[in-house]
Amino acid sequence: MATTALALLFLSPLCPAKDHFEALPEKASPEVVGRKLSARFVASPHMFWTEFGTLHYAEVATWYGALNFAALTKDAKLKQQLVDRFEPFFGAEEKFIPPVTHVDHSVFGVVPLELYRQTGQVKYRVMGLAFADGQWDRPDSEGLSNQARYWIDDMYMITALQVQAWRATGDRKYLDRTAKQMVKYLARLQQPNGLFFHAPDVPFYWGRGNGWMAAGMTELLRALPANHPERPKILQGYRSMMASLKRYQSDSGMWLQLIDRPESWAETSSTAMFTFAMITGVKNGWLDESYGPVARKAWLALVDYINEDGDVREVCAGTATKNDVQHYLDRPRIVGDFHGQAPMLWSVAALLRPAGLLMPAE
């Protein structure tokens, strides 16, 4: 199993243990929430792309969250269930593996790479690296992935995969190229207020799109060495975004479907992504103490959106770009969609993960 670059686990000056995430009510305990959501995932059918018939990226993101929870809690039974769920992709379900042709498909590689890290089985590494390397097949003239489309969603899909490839191999090229890509996206899409348009020609601050960006920066900052040349720019972009989110948090603790539009509705997937990003930032000293109560308030609000079945409510449906504000305000609100289940599990992991720990406990 890859253990390269362990010296880089602690990448920034760490603050003392934070009390913002302690003494949580029972229903908000990360262990309780994580068990409930992971059990729901294990019992759920696959989520497929309607038009392609292959596994959907939202399931990949949820699977990754459940694997992190299993590792952090040393839950061998859950880990085996998650391994067993994947085994058919080497046989009867091989037809459901996405092609390495698009950011939303390529992110599939995150799961086998995490399975490799947790089991040491080389077959997972081979499969996962095929996606990570395929994402940089025929790079553009600037050395960036030809899968880039400059939607903010990309900077989770690309970043998560490349960071996982680095975690599995220790090869610096995976960090270098995704950091370069992130800086390019920051320059093109981040606005003066720290938030992001969904795309250059779509001037709306869509919640989950911004959430993907927040989560991508967070995963990358957990991995980048303190002396990496791109780290200051990425950290600056992250802090600028978090400062804006702090201002826009609603009184309930939630963030809205369109972050700056008070007429829009409280949306769970974006709130969970921002919560994951803030918890991680506070624990690692990237954010000051004032963000601790913000993240705690958001987490306590979120747990009330989990129903008895372990399904998260008020999740925005998958959303393509459109230069029409009503398009975003009228998006369907779904119960139990993996877009919402996934970041709740990431937040669980952030609450459980010790400060500075790059990888879940093996």
TrEMBL record:
Residues of the signal peptide: 1-17
GO MF terms held by the record: hydrolase activity
Biological process, per Gene Ontology: carbohydrate metabolic process
Entry's transmembrane regions: none
Highest taxon of the lineage: Bacteria
Xref: SUPFAM superfamilies: Six-hairpin glycosidases (SSF48208)
Alphabetic keyword roster: Hydrolase, Signal
Name of protein: Rhamnogalacturonyl hydrolase YesR
The organism of origin for this protein: Usitatibacter rugosus
